[in-house]
Each structure stands twice: as C-alpha cells, then as structure tokens.
Amino acid sequence: MEKSFRFSNTIKWKSEYEASLFFGDKANFEFATPPEFRGPEGFVSPEELFVASAHACCLTTFIAKALKAEINLISYESSAEGILEKLDGQLMFTKIAIKSRIKTDGDKEKVKKIVEQVEQNALVINSMKTNVTIEAIIE
To answer: What stretch of H or E contains 66?
Structure first.
C-alpha cells in the first residue's frame, strides 16, 4: 500500500519584501527576499532555505542510514553552497555542493557507501532539478 504524507506551512506578508513563515505549533520565523534582489539585510531568504533544505535532508538521510547500518558516529559537520545562475534566460539553482566531515570509529568504507546512497536517494534532493553533490571527508 502506498503512503502519502502532507507537510504544510503558512505565510503572512508583513511589508515590502518581508514575511513570516509558520509551521503550525512548531518554530516560525521571518524571511525576506535577499539583498541581491532588493530585499533587506539580516533575513533568511527563500534561496537560502532551498539550499538548507537539501543540506538538512542530506544529514537526516545520512543519520537514518548510519543508524540502520549500526555505524557509531563521533561527529558530523557539513557546509553547503548553492550556485544560482542564469540558464536558458532564467535564474535557477544549477548546483548545490555539500561538504561533510564525518568522524567514526566504524567501517569507513561502509560510511563512504552510505554517503553515496544519500547523494543518490535523499528524498528532498531527489525532488529537486538541481544537481546536488556530496563530498565527504571520513575520519
């Protein structure tokens, strides 16, 4: 039997390029168009949320697979950068590069295979047209 899940949020516009994003009884925050597109300084932008969504999905998928494989993680840190450029006359994200540093006392080859699985199978990443790469340093 197939399952479906729903994830929702609500936006309330404040002024000009600023709005608030609500996730029911969870955290909410203000966001705005980035300064590169005439928005104010100091706010998270939809563009940053797009990159963060892929980044967070990478981590949560990795953790799920590592736990299932009984990998003992000591630490995990990563950074992500999205490249927004004009393609066929339209601005779009063409790449998101995620760089991870993973420490484990477990089988490093197993961890490397998990990273490859994450790059190929992470739910949010697979839902994007953007090319997402994961480069991991496994210690």
So the answer is: helix 46-68
Residues of the chain with pLDDT under 50: none
pLDDT of residue 111: 96
Terminal CA-CA length for the chain? 40
Note down the domain range covering 63: 47-138
Q: At residue 28, what are phi and psi to the nearest 5 degrees?
A: -135, 160
Same-domain check for residues 70 and 21: no
pLDDT at position 2 is: 75
In the three-class reduction of DSSP (H, G, I as helix; E, B as strand; rest coil), residue 70 is classed as coil
Q: What angle do CA 6, 68, 74 make, to 5 degrees?
A: 105
Report the alpha-carbon distance of residue 119 to residue 104 in Å, rounded. 19
pTM score: 0.91
25: part of which helix (H) or strand (E)?
none
Nearest to 73 by CA among 28, 38, 108: 108
